[in-house]
Amino acid sequence: MTMGSPSTENPAPARPLRRDAQRNRDALLASARACFAEHGLEAPLEQVAKRAGLAIGTLYRHFPARLDLVQAVFAEKTAVWRAAGEKAVAMDDAWAGLCHFLEAMCELQAGDRGFNDLASMRLPETACLAGAQTRIHELGVRIVERAQEQGSLRPDLTPEDLAFVIWSHSRITEATHDIAPGVWRRHLHLLLDGFRADRARPLPEPPLTPAQLYRAMMRLGGSGICSG
Questions:
Q1: Which structural domains are found in the chain, ordered by start?
Q2: Model confidence over 30-42: pLDDT tens digits?
């Protein structure tokens, strides 16, 4: 996150919105949450405004850019994801911590194409949620390290490999969420079995480097949502 200029280091408290303005903002957030869940982060903003019963100009007055709306919609889920990571790192059983972290992440993704998109990509460093993304990545690194130190997680798995859980889960829930909403748990636990140290076999390809993972996540749309 960017450092504040001298004039913004101690900003004055924001004025509370008028009742009608707060009502409009709440309606826009509820509409955006539903539209993003159904259509992903590239859902038309005109559709968001229409669903809220408001003009597109009202949307832009509250959220000048798509990224502003995305961050407001997903701040709570991102905080829940981060809290799951903090809890996982504190668990005595590191394997149980890894399972808790991944299951919480997949639970947040299930049935929400917008959060699937957000979890799959990397936001620009100037975005407010970028700091939360960085912290979640740091927690993921430590969760992997602890499970390997305790000998429960295969030693050749890297934190970058966790991205494959996110990416595969995204497609699985998109295909099954209204057919068999809980079937993603089966896939997750099949993956977890493959992560166990006693199941390890040599892998045919090296892992992604952190730089390669960053480029892949940006390719999935981290910069694109800033332009709409």
A1: 17-64 (1.10.10.60), 67-226 (1.10.357)
A2: 999 999 999 999 9
